[in-house]
UniProtKB/TrEMBL annotation:
Cofactor(s) needed for function: Mn(2+)
Entry's transmembrane regions: 12-35
Domain (Galactosyltransferase C-terminal) ranges: 152-227
Role: Catalyzes the transfer of galactose onto proteins or lipids.
All residue ranges annotated as the Galactosyltransferase N-terminal domain in the record: 61-145
GO CC, alphabetical: Golgi apparatus; membrane
Annotated protein name in UniProt: Beta-1,4-N-acetylgalactosaminyltransferase
Keyword Membrane found: yes
Keywords: Glycoprotein, Glycosyltransferase, Manganese, Membrane, Metal-binding, Signal-anchor, Transferase, Transmembrane, Transmembrane helix
PANTHER family: BETA-1,4-GALACTOSYLTRANSFERASE, BETA-1,4-GALACTOSYLTRANSFERASE 7
Length: 335
């Protein structure tokens, strides 16, 4: 650093030094020596600096997790979830905040869009997110919710999820850094109703060359999570209308974080037995031109199966979204 710059950085005192400097080089050097001595008397700068960098390191190490929970009509599950997960994450010293993104419009449920909204509304305080189903409670502390440094971390892995065991499954609970979520433009917004949105996210992560990691050495196996889901009470919306299969079985490079349309009606800060949750009441918006299946109530307006199959078969394989679920091997308490 040049002398003048060094001097300028020391504010008012340095103005005096500059004046002295203009009186002669010798005097100038003397006053610079005096000034640096005075500064050193004021503090032990070396130890101050090392303390400061230590505290910076701590700050850098303090990752903050936003738990994003898509929600509709599952208030009982939410109450259990918030109490359980708060205690669970506290035990791991994971700094976190839970957001329930509650869909309050009359459209079909859209898990992916709610996760996009949660990400946008949580703000920039968080450097990673958990895309978290409300009905999955981690049962073992072997499941760690730490910052996913090396790539997306799929906690509800196929060998641990109580219901879904196919190799490319990434639903249930997935940790992503802010950067990773932005890189893939979040999730597709075309998935109204149950299923496939997580399989499309798998294709996004794959195309972005993000390597998915999963927990190893978990002795609890299929008991690692409790799935609070009775399918007779919480029915999955498997209605298919207006050829939605044609678009939802196909990779979407168009919609995502950048295109989700919604209104945030209100934000409520609730506590359940002392555990905090921010509830975001959200109205999603649907373009009926692009996704006419966003509010149908029965199977209608679909092309014959053979025709649909033909169209899907003509796509490049990497554009086909088709999870390989082996329904024969498929056993789970909720069916
Ligand atoms: N969900 C919800 N209300 C619904 C449908 C789904 O809150 O009507 C949320 C909830 O967080 C749930 C997740 O979406 O855990 C996944 O849906 P679901 O449990 O029906 O699917 P599964 O993974 O059991 O097939
Ligand atoms: Mn479920």
């Amino acid at each position: 650093m040049g002398l003048r710059l060094w001097i300028r950085r020391r504010g008012a005192v340095s103005t005096a030094v500059l004046l002295v400097c203009s009186a002669g080089v010798g005097m100038c050097l003397l006053s610079v020596l005096y000034l640096s001595g005075a500064l050193q008397q004021g503090c032990d700068c070396s130890s101050f600096q090392s303390k400061r960098s230590e505290s910076l390191k701590v700050a850098e190490g303090q990752h903050k997790l936003a738990v994003l929970v898509p929600l509709r009509d599952r208030f009982e599950e939410l109450q259990d979830f918030v109490v359980h997960l708060s205690q669970f994450l506290e035990a791991q010293s994971v700094q976190h905040q839970i957001f329930a993104i509650n869909q309050v419009d009359n459209l079909r449920f859209n898990r992916a869009s709610l996760l996009n909204v949660g990400f946008l509304e949580a703000g920039e305080d968080f450097d990673y997110v958990a895309l978290h189903d409300v009905d999955l409670l981690p049962n073992t502390q072997d499941l760690t919710y730490f910052f996913p440094e090396t790539g997306p971390f799929h906690l509800a892995a196929p060998h641990l999820h109580p219901r879904y065991h196919y190799p490319t499954f990434i639903g249930g609970v997935l940790l992503l850094t802010r950067k990773q979520m932005i890189e893939v433009n979040g999730l597709s917004n075309v998935y109204w109703g149950w299923g496939l949105e997580d399989d499309e996210l798998f294709a996004r992560l794959r195309d972005a060359h993000l390597v998915i990691h999963r927990p190893g050495n978990i002795t609890a196996g299929l008991k690692s999570f409790r799935h609070m889901h009775d399918r007779r009470v919480r029915k999955r919306d498997q209605i298919r209308c207006f050829d939605q299969q044609l678009l939802t079985r196909r990779r979407d490079r168009r919609t995502g974080l950048s295109t989700v349309r919604y209104t945030l009606l209100e934000r409520r800060e609730l506590t359940v037995d002392g555990a905090a949750v921010s509830v975001l009441n959200v109205q999603l918006q649907c373009s009926r031109q692009q996704t006419p299946w966003c509010d149908c109530v029965q199977n209608t307006g679909n092309s014959p199966k053979e025709k649909r199959r033909e169209i899907i078969h003509a796509l490049p394989p990497e554009d086909v979204i088709a999870p390989k679920i082996d329904w024969k091997k498929h056993i789970s308490p909720d069916g």
